[in-house]
Amino acid sequence: MEGQVPDFLQKKLVNQYGEDLFQKILSGYRAKRFVTLRVNTLKTNVDFVKDLLKTAGISYQKVSWSKEALIVQEIKEAAIWELPVYKEGGVYLQSLSSMIPPVFLDPKGGENILDMAAAPGGKTTQMAALSGGRAQITACEKNKIRAERLRYNLEKQGAANVYLMVADSRKLDDFFSFDKILLDAPCSGSGTLKLEEQGLKQNITEELVSRSAKTQEELLKKALKLLKPGHEMIYSTCSILADENEAIIEKVLGKSAEIVPISPEELPDLPLLPVSIQGTLCICPDKFYEGFFVAKIRKR
Ligand code: SAM
After folding, report:
1. CA distances from 195 to 2, 34, 170, 200 (A)
2. pLDDT for position 198
3. CA of 54 relative to ligand 1 center, distance in Å
4. Which residue's CA is the nearest one to ligand 1's atom 23?
């Protein structure tokens, strides 16, 4: 049996996007998403992985905006788990949407970067790889069990220049300062709903949306305290609700920070939803992408 969109969420989405776009989102929730992976260049290289996939009889598709991202076809994740290159940390199963925030943060060697909500570490390890292992990354995670998963992934993927902190990012000392910050905030997950799974239990509630919004606001305020003036950060969520995205940015930014526009042309072929803050990006769920929100922010 197909899962249902909770009533409150349907109302919110229709209210925000209108009936036609709600139907588009719904078909994205119903779509069976392709398995996607990221080649971990700290351990291997893209051509080597492509050859391995061919030898294993796994066909793949490239992604226009990232050399390391591959869409694999007609297989389940378990087929990737079996590959030695997966077991050795040479590839990481990661959704395409979740690869976008690190691409826009553009981590470079020598930069001091904070990842404020890091586990299980898809984006932390991607940032490490994008900087060639040369950025100094502080990965902060509040949940101890998830932090262990993060530790495991950092080690497996050879992300050596990462300092792991098991702490609530909201309580970090304002004495710290960073060149760049990724705030991939905890959220309701309204972009990642999957209705095609049998008997799926929906965990998204109105209470979760408002609780997430409160945490997001506190985390973004803290991020702007810890970011060096004139420097940039990324705020992202896997929610497509304005309550957790544009509303948070509007509440927190004020005069202290501004949006650095992301141009959709930089990411061709992306299914986009309208946004109320020009220059931010909201991705519509479909068979390739999860619903996601990304904003680039500069501290004045
Ligand atoms: N960035 C991660 C990745 O790419 O793999 C996914 C992060 S997930 C959306 C949000 C994470 O933030 C969860 O692991 C959650 O436990 C953690 N978290 C929630 N509140 C936090 C806080 N106040 N400080 C630090 N981590 C927090």
Report:
1. 6, 15, 34, 7
2. 54
3. 35
4. 168
Q: Is 184 in the pocket of ligand 1 (CB under 6 A)?
A: yes
Active site positions, annotated: 238
Determine the atom of ligand 1 nearest the C-alpha atom of 121: 5
Q: Is 290 in the pocket of ligand 1 (CB under 6 A)?
A: no
pLDDT score, position 200:
56
Which of 286, 291, 236, 268 has the alpha carbon at shortest distance from 123?
A: 236
Mutate to test the pocket of ligand 1, among 127, 142, 293 (most ligand atoms within 8 A of CB): 142
**What's the pLDDT at 215?**
98
pTM score above 0.85: yes
Which residues in the chain land under pLDDT 50?
none
